[in-house]
Amino acid sequence: MKIQGKLFMWLSVFFLIVAIAYGMWSKEPAGTTALFLAFGLSIMIGFYLGFTARRVDVGAQDNKEADVADDAGELGFFSPHSWQPLALGIGGALAFLGVAVGWWLLYFSLPVILIGLWGWVFEYYRGENRTQ
Question: What angle do CA 114, 116, 122 make, to 5 degrees?
Fold first, then answer.
């Protein structure tokens, strides 16, 4: 993670230089603001990765002598089957459709989003998946 943290820190320096040069040269506020926001976002990510890298074990990506197989293993737990993302996707599509068609459609999308979110959060607290 140290490499990724350094990469984002250098990227933030680049964004800062480009934002200052672009702001002075173009006098255009929207692009300058976007570049300064990109600077802020990249420095936050770089700081987080650098902060986390000091507290976790050294990974294979930080070792120059490591092979690809050294980083193999379990990456985490991923739900094998879940219908909750489908409910959230339908609710999100209805919400965005409400912005285009009419705001009244948000009243129908909010319950679908809340049901999908509730089901996703508490998916492993009830039913057949409770023991996983």
Answer: 100
**Coil, strand, or helix at residue 95?**
helix
Q: Decide if 61 contacts 71 (C-beta within 8 A).
A: yes
User: What's the CA gap between 105 and 79, in Å, rounded?
Assistant: 31
**Over residues 46-55, mean pLDDT:** 90
Q: Which residues contact 106 (CB under 8 A, 6 or more apart)?
A: 94, 95, 98
Whether the Cβ atoms of residue 56 and residue 1 lie closer than 8 Å to each other: yes
User: How far is it, in rounded angstroms, from Cα 92 to Cα 123?
Assistant: 19
Q: What angle do CA 131, 125, 87 make, to 5 degrees?
A: 120
Q: Are 84 and 127 in contact (CB under 8 A)?
A: no
**Terminal CA-to-CA distance of the chain, rounded, Å?**
30
CA 42 to chain centre: 13
Separation between Cα atoms, residue 107 and residue 112, nearest integer Å: 10
Spatial neighbors of 19 by CB under 8 A, at least 6 apart, are: 32, 35, 36, 38, 39
Output the pTM of the full model.
0.55
Residue 29: the pLDDT is 95
